[in-house]
Amino acid sequence: MSRKKISPHFWLDEFACGCCGASGDKKNIIQLAARLEMLRRRWNKPMKIVGGHRCMKSNPHGANNAHHLCKGADIAVDGVSEERVAKAAQAFFTHVVVGKGFVHVDYMPKGYKQPEAKKDGSNKSDPKPRVKRKLRKETSKSDEKIQKPKATRRRKTSKKEKEG
Predict the structure, then answer these.
(1) At a CB cut-off of 8 Å and minimum separation 6, what does 83 contact?
(2) Domain-by-domain residue ranges, the chain?
(3) Of the ranges 82-96, 112-126, 131-145, the best mean pLDDT one
(4) Spatial CB neighbours of 14, under 8 Å, sequence gap ≥ 6
(5) pLDDT tens-digit readout, 76-97
(6) For the purposes of burial, counting CB atoms within 10 Å of the CB of 52, is it exposed (0-12), middle (13-18) or buried (19 or more)?
(7) Tens-digit pLDDT profile for residues 37-66
(8) Buried b vs exposed e over 98-114: b needs ≥16 C-beta within 10 Å?
(9) Residue 93 and residue 110: Cα distance in Å, rounded?
(10) Among 20, 24, 33, CA closest to 53
(11) ∠ at Cα 83 (60, 44), nearest 5°?
């Protein structure tokens, strides 16, 4: 099997799923590798991809997390602490989380929140989330009669009034 190089220092198979070897969305992996290349230049040391793409079988958080969408990876740099890697990674990634022996980096949108795993073990997201709605407070006829005072405009002062 021939390896496919996607950047000067990264190969496509480095981002493959650990359980089945699936590589996921190649376009997103190439964008991820480009950001990792910029980070790698900081130390000019080998960067290990600890975790890349995750298939639905190995993904406990559902289909919308960075690993499943190939927009994130877990990385380690030889001889550099996780805290230093995380600090430098913040310039290139929107989410950076320090783990034990690795740093998770991804470029998911800033307002993105990781979906929580369901209690029953299924990893399907609910298509229509249930929203608790507030009950409207009934108004009585006495409330309708109360009117707010009208706003008044402030009168401009003339030059004569200012001087005098």
Answers:
(1) 98
(2) 12-106
(3) 82-96
(4) 49, 52
(5) 999 999 999 999 999 999 889 9
(6) buried
(7) 999 999 899 999 998 888 777 666 655 566
(8) eeeebbbbbbbeeeeee
(9) 10
(10) 24
(11) 100
The DSSP secondary structure of the chain, one letter per residue, reads ----B-SSS-BGGGGS-TTT-----HHHHHHHHHHHHHHHTTTTS-EEEEE----TTT-TT-TTSTTTTT-EEEEEETTS-HHHHHHHHTTT-SEEEE-SS-EEEE---TT--PPPPPTTS--PPPSS-----PPPPPPPHHHHH--PPPP-PPPPPPHHHHH-
Amino acid found at 31: Q
Length of the chain: 164
Contact at 8 Å (CB) between 75 and 33? no
The first and second tokens of residue 137, run together, are 């407070």
Which residue is it, tokens 């993105």?
Answer: 112
Query: For residues 103 and 59, what is the distance between their CA atoms, to the nearest angstrom?
Result: 18
CA distance 95 to 53: 16
Does domain 12-106 match CATH 3.20.20.450? Answer: no
